[in-house]
Structures are given as structure tokens and as C-alpha cells.
Design goal:
By secondary structure, the protein is mainly α. The chain is 70% helix and 4% strand.
């Protein structure tokens, strides 16, 4: 199951996906040895992966007992969305300013591919996880354009926590199709170099996401 290349990174991705999809449940205690036995690896890369998950606020680690998935509440989502809106708004503004550069054109092309090919290709209940990851990749494009290491680090730290909540929201009827339309609006505004509309479309998209999650989550 685990290839002999970067054990820690592969274990981290495996555990993160199980957390997002709810296969690892809140309140249960998991041990390093349990994970190591399941994946047929040593405990060292498992421990390293768990430490990264703790840094991203995905798990709580209990000395001598193991770790458990940290539950995410609506209050957490509100704070994450506020931070994301601020960072992504600044990033969209920077992208539009730099749209004439080779890097800007490349990001624009990737955004177009994301909304016109990648996201539609994952429109099925079985691929909710892949759709969600593609959704988040769209948002990371403008942030990566800024080259701001703090923006990128903060976004990556928040990304999985929001994915943890978003995975459930995608079960909403027609939500993936509506989400594509919302991303298309952001992309179209960027392509037109309409900064105000791009940020307005981003805020609208984030507000819709927040409202859906409000009805699904505990405070």
C-alpha cells in the first residue's frame, strides 16, 4: 500500500484523507503502532506524519496514549473563511495587476482549465473528494502567484481543516454544479481584469459555503 518513497509524506496524505472523509472518527484514540501495522511501515514515519497533522490542528496528541481527530466546529469554519477571504482577495488583486506577465498568463490558463475541465470531470458522488481537492487547488492558484510564503503557509495550514468540513457540504444536492458556476464567476472577472467583481464573486462564494455549513455543523 505504501511505496518505498517518502514514507512520511505518503502516510500523512493517507491519514489526512481518512480524516477528511470521516474514516477516522472524532473521539476515538488511535496509536502510532496501530497505523504502522495497518500500513506495514515503522512507527517513525507515522510519528512524523502525526506531528504534521497536529501542526495543522487536525489531531490532538496524548502523551503515551496516542492521538485523536480534532473535531471542527462552525466557529472554526467562520474564522477560516474570514482569513481565506482576506488572503485570497489580496491575491486576486495581485494576480489581476500582474496578468500581463508570463506567470500571470500561466495562472489564468490553469484557472480556466480548473473550472472548464478538472472540476467538471469529477462531478459524481464517488468523486466528492477529488472534486473538493480540485476546488481548493483553484483557490491556491492566485495565492501561489503572489509568492508570499506567509500567505501560502497559512492557506495550506487552513486548507485541510476546511476540507474536513467541505466534504460533507458537497453532499448537498447540486452543490458541486453550483460551486463550478461560482468559480467560473471568479475566473471570468479575473480574465476581464475586473478586480471589484472578482473579489465580490469570491466573497459571495465564501458566504454561500459558510451558510451551507452553518446548517450542518455544531457550534
Amino acid at each position: 500500500m505504501i511505496k518505498k518513497v517518502s514514507y512520511k509524506d505518503q502516510i500523512y496524505e493517507h491519514l489526512k484523507q481518512e480524516i477528511i472523509m470521516g474514516d477516522m472518527r472524532n473521539g476515538e484514540i488511535y496509536s502510532e503502532q496501530m497505523i504502522a501495522d495497518k500500513l506495514n511501515v515503522s512507527r517513525t514515519p507515522v510519528r512524523e506524519a502525526i506531528l504534521q497533522l497536529r501542526f495543522e490542528n487536525l489531531v490532538d496528541v496524548f502523551s503515551g496514549r496516542g492521538f485523536s481527530v480534532r473535531p471542527i466546529h462552525f466557529f472554526d469554519v467562520q474564522q477560516i473563511i474570514q482569513a481565506r477571504t482576506a488572503i485570497e482577495g489580496a491575491s486576486l488583486r495581485a494576480l489581476i495587476i500582474g496578468l500581463d506577465t508570463a506567470e500571470g498568463q500561466e495562472i489564468l490558463a490553469q484557472m480556466e482549465k480548473c473550472v472548464k475541465q478538472d472540476m467538471p470531470s469529477t462531478l459524481s458522488d464517488e468523486n466528492n473528494y477529488n472534486f473538493m481537492r480540485t476546488d481548493m487547488e483553484f483557490h491556491m492558484l492566485s495565492v501561489s502567484f503572489t509568492g508570499n510564503e506567509f500567505f501560502i503557509q497559512i492557506m495550506n495550514m487552513m486548507r485541510t481543516r476546511l476540507e474536513q468540513a467541505m466534504f460533507s457540504s458537497l453532499r448537498e444536492q447540486f452543490r458541486p454544479i453550483a460551486a463550478i458556476d461560482e468559480h467560473e464567476k471568479i475566473f471570468s472577472a479575473v480574465r476581464r481584469r475586473d478586480t471589484d467583481d472578482a473579489i465580490r464573486s469570491l466573497v459571495e462564494h465564501m458566504n454561500i459555503t459558510e451558510n451551507i455549513l452553518r446548517d450542518m455543523m455544531d457550534y
